[in-house]
Write a structure and sequence with these properties.
Blueprint (H helix, E strand, L loop, with lengths): L1 H20 L6 E9 L8 E8 L2 E6 L9 E4 L4 E4 L1 E6 L10 H10 L2 E6 L7 H8 L6 E9 L14 E3 L3 H11 L6 E5 L16 H13 L3 E5 L3 H10 L3 E2 L10 H10 L2 E2 L3 H4 L14 H23 L18 H13 L3 H15 L17 E4 L13 E6 L2 E5 L14 E2 L3 E3 L26 E10 L2 E9 L8 E6 L8 E2 L5 E7 L2 E9 L2 E9 L4 E6 L4 E2 L14 E8 L6 E12 L3
Parallel strand pairs: 1-4, 1-5, 6-7, 7-8, 8-9, 8-10, 10-11, 11-12, 12-13, 17-22
Antiparallel strand pairs: 1-2, 2-3, 5-14, 14-15, 15-16, 18-29, 19-20, 20-29, 21-28, 23-26, 23-29, 24-25, 24-28, 25-27
Helix pairs in contact: 4-5, 5-6, 6-7, 10-11
Bound molecules: zinc ion (ZN).
C-alpha cells in the first residue's frame, strides 16, 4: 500500500512538474489595466505590461497586446515587482523540510526571490532539482562559514558550517565550497548573543577580510550575521556585501556610519525576528528584566536603521524566517510593515523589499523593477501599498518568470511534502573510496553534539588487511552531562531523498573496539536506536529493524515503515571527558536468508 502511495506521489510530482515547466516558448501574456509601482523611484502609473519568455518586453500606458496573447485583467489592481527575503532558514536540520510548503508560503506572500541559509552544501544539488519541479520562488542556496566556537558553528559539523580562523583557512574553505556552486556565503562573524547568553567567538578581521576577498574573486557575495555596531563597521571595512541582522548593542557612532556608507554595503535588519511583541501575541511583561532588555535592543535596532537609511545606506529585506517561530512568507510581509513602523515611508519600504534587495544580491540587472528586459517576477495586489502599507497583505496574483504561481482566487492544492523514496543499496560503505565518500557517494557526517562544548571527532580510513580498509574513529567526549559522538552515513546526497529499506530485514555492520555503541537510524518520522557491545576483535552484527526502538517524544510512537530513511550511523557511548576509539567496516542492510 505504501509503495502504491509512493508511486502515486511520484506521478503527481511529475505531472505537476511538467505543467509548471511549460511556459510555452513564444507565449505572450499581457496584464492590462494595472497601477504600476515599478520600483524605479518614479510615481506609480496606469497601463499594461507585456511578457514573453519570462521577461517584460513592454510596459507603459499604451501597450498593445498582439493577437493570441494571454490576457490577465488587472481591474485597477496594483502591480509591483516580486518581493525578496535575503535571510531565511528552510529547516529543520538533517531532514528535508516540507520544502513545497515553504515555497508555497513565499509565493502566497508575493516573495519571488529567497536566500536559504540552512542547508549543507551536499544538499544543494538535490534541492535545486526538487525546486525545479514545483512552483517556487527563485531559491538561492547559501553556504555557511563560522569560526571555532563561533555562532552558527554551535550545531552540526563542518559538512554544514565551515570553521575558519586564519587567512589561509578562509581561502581554502571558500575553494572547497566552489564545486557545490553556492549562490552566496553567510559568515557568522559576530559572537555576541544579545547579552542574553554567554558570548561566542567572533571572527577576526584578517580572516573575514581574506574570506571576502577569496569569495569576491570567485564572484560570490558575502552576508554576515553581525549584531553589534563595532563589528558592523568591521564588516564594512572587510568588504562584506550585506549585514543580515540588526546592529543593536548601542547606537552607531558617526565614524561607523561613515565606514558602512563608504563600503557600499547593504543593511537587512531582520526586524521581524527581533520584534518584541508579534501581532496577536500576549501583552509583554514589562516587570521582566529580559523583556525590558529586548524592548530596549529593539529600540536601538530601529534607531540604527533610521540612521543608516538617512545616511544613504541601502536597506534590504531579510527576516530570519524559519527560526524562532517566524512563519515563512508572513514574516517577509511583516518586515515591510516594520520598516514603516521604524520610520521609512511605505514607498521606501517597498523599494527596500524589491530593487534594493535585488541590488544587494547583485541581481538588479536581471530583476527587481518593472522595466523592459527584466525578469517577469510580478505581484498583483488589491489596494495601493505605497500609500497604505497594510495593503501588501492583499496579494491576489503572483508570477515567477512570467508564469502564474499563485492565484488567491484559485489557491493551489498542497503538494506532497517529501520526495518519493528510492530503494536503498545493501552496502552503504565498505570504506574503500580514497576520496572519503561512501560507496553510495554520500559524505559521512558527525552531526551529533550541540552547543559550545562539543565532542571532538576525527575519523580516517586505514587498512584492515591487504586491499581492505576500515573507518577508524577517535572521539574526545565533551565535558558535559550527555556528550554525543559518532558517525552518520547519509543514505542519499545531503539526506534529501529518502531511502526505502523494506526489502531488507535489518542493519549489518562490523565493529571493533571494546565498549557500548548505539546504532541509529534517522527517518523522516524521527530517530530509532538499538544498543550493541563490541570487543577486542572484529564482530559482525546483524540487527533486525524490529530491535530498533523509537527514541523521540511522540506519543504514541510512530510505526516503523522502513520507507523514509535518511541516515544510519554508529554512536559511541562514553563518559564526559573520556577519549574513545573504535573501528567500523561494511555498514549496510541485510536481507532475510
Ligand atoms: Zn538566521
Amino acid at each position: 500500500m505504501l509503495r502504491l502511495v509512493s508511486v502515486l506521489l511520484l506521478a503527481i510530482v511529475c505531472l505537476f512538474g511538467q505543467q509548471f515547466a511549460f511556459a510555452r516558448p513564444g507565449q505572450v501574456t499581457v496584464i492590462t489595466n494595472v497601477e504600476v509601482f515599478d520600483s524605479t523611484g518614479a510615481a506609480s502609473w496606469q497601463g499594461s505590461v507585456l511578457i514573453r519568455d519570462g521577461r517584460i518586453i513592454e510596459a507603459g500606458p499604451k501597450v498593445k497586446a498582439p493577437r493570441g496573447a494571454k490576457v490577465i485583467k488587472g481591474n485597477g489592481r496594483a502591480l509591483l515587482p516580486g518581493f525578496y527575503d535575503v535571510h531565511t532558514h528552510w529547516g529543520p536540520r538533517a531532514t528535508p523540510s516540507a520544502l513545497p510548503d515553504v515555497a508555497a508560503n513565499y509565493l502566497a506572500s508575493g516573495v519571488t526571490t529567497v536566500l536559504d541559509f540552512h542547508q549543507p552544501p551536499e544538499a544543494f544539488q538535490p534541492r535545486r532539482e526538487w525546486l525545479g519541479q514545483i512552483p517556487s520562488p527563485h531559491v538561492n542556496l547559501v553556504a555557511r562559514m563560522s569560526t571555532p566556537g563561533g555562532h552558527g558553528a554551535d550545531w552540526s559539523d563542518e559538512t554544514t558550517t565551515k570553521w575558519v580562523s586564519t587567512e589561509e583557512s578562509a581561502q581554502r574553505a571558500v575553494q572547497e565550497l566552489l564545486p557545490y556552486k553556492p549562490d552566496y556565503i553567510k559568515v557568522f562573524s559576530d559572537g555576541w548573543r544579545y547579552g542574553a547568553s554567554p558570548e561566542e567567538t567572533s571572527m577576526n578581521e584578517e580572516t573575514l577580510t581574506a574570506l571576502v576577498e577569496e569569495a569576491h574573486a570567485n564572484d560570490i557575495r558575502i552576508l554576515t550575521h553581525t549584531v553589534t555596531s563595532a563589528r558592523g563597521a568591521l564588516a564594512a571595512r572587510a568588504g562584506v556585501d550585506i549585514i543580515a541582522h540588526s546592529l543593536q548593542d548601542r547606537a552607531l557612532r558617526e565614524d561607523e556610519v561613515a565606514d558602512i556608507l563608504a563600503s557600499g554595503m547593504s543593511y537587512a535588519p531582520t526586524l521581524a525576528i527581533y520584534e518584541p511583541r508579534r501581532p496577536g501575541a500576549p501583552e509583554l511583561d514589562m516587570e521582566s528584566a529580559s523583556v525590558r532588555m529586548r524592548v530596549w535592543k529593539y529600540g536601538i535596532a530601529e534607531e540604527n536603521l533610521r540612521t543608516l537609511f538617512e545616511a544613504g545606506v541601502p536597506v534590504a529585506l531579510g527576516t530570519d524566517a524559519g527560526i524562532g517561530g517566524l512563519v515563512h512568507g508572513d514574516a517577509s510581509l511583516r518586515e515591510i510593515e516594520l520598516f514603516v513602523e521604524a520610520g521609512l515611508s511605505p514607498a521606501d519600504a517597498l523599494i527596500a523589499a524589491t530593487v534594493n534587495s535585488a541590488r544587494a544580491l547583485g541581481l538588479s540587472e536581471d530583476r527587481g523593477t518593472i522595466e523592459v528586459g527584466k525578469r517577469a517576477d510580478i505581484v498583483l495586489i488589491e489596494g495601493k501599498p505605497w500609500e497604505n502599507i497594510g495593503d501588501v497583505r492583499n496579494i491576489s496574483l503572483v508570477l515567477v518568470d512570467g508564469v502564474t504561481v499563485f492565484d488567491a482566487a484559485n489557491p493551489p492544492k498542497p503538494l506532497p511534502s517529501i520526495l518519493p523514496a528510492r530503494p536503498a543499496a545493501s552496502l552503504i560503505d565498505d570504506f574503500e573510496r580514497a576520496d572519503g565518500r561512501t560507496a553510495i557517494d554520500t559524505l559521512p557526517v558527525t552531526d551529533l553534539d550541540f552547543g559550545m562544548e562539543r565532542s571532538v571527532i576525527t575519523f580516517t580510513r586505514r587498512p584492515r588487511q591487504a586491499g581492505d580498509h576500515v573507518l577508524s574513529v577517535t572521539a574526545r567526549m565533551a565535558r558535559k552531562e550527555k556528550p554525543m559522538a559518532g558517525v552518520l552515513f547519509p543514505l542519499s546526497r545531503g539526506s534529501v531523498i529518502p531511502a526505502d529499506v523494506t526489502a531488507y530485514e535489518g542493519v549489518s555492520t562490523d565493529l571493533f573496539g571494546a565498549g557500548d555503541y548505539t546504532l541509529r537510524i534517522l527517518s523522516l518520522k524521527g530517530m530509532w536506536e538499538a544498543k550493541v557491545s563490541a570487543g577486542d576483535g572484529w564482530i559482525s552484527f546483524k540487527i533486525p529493524f524490529t530491535d530498533f526502538a523509537f527514541t523521540g517524544n511522540a506519543d504514541p510512537a510512530p510505526a516503523w515503515t522502513g520507507d523514509d530513511l535518511l541516515q544510519i550511523g554508529v554512536l559511541i557511548n562514553r563518559e564526559a571527558g573520556e577519549t574513545a576509539w573504535f573501528e567500523i567496516d561494511n555498514i549496510g542492510f541485510y536481507a532475510a536468508e
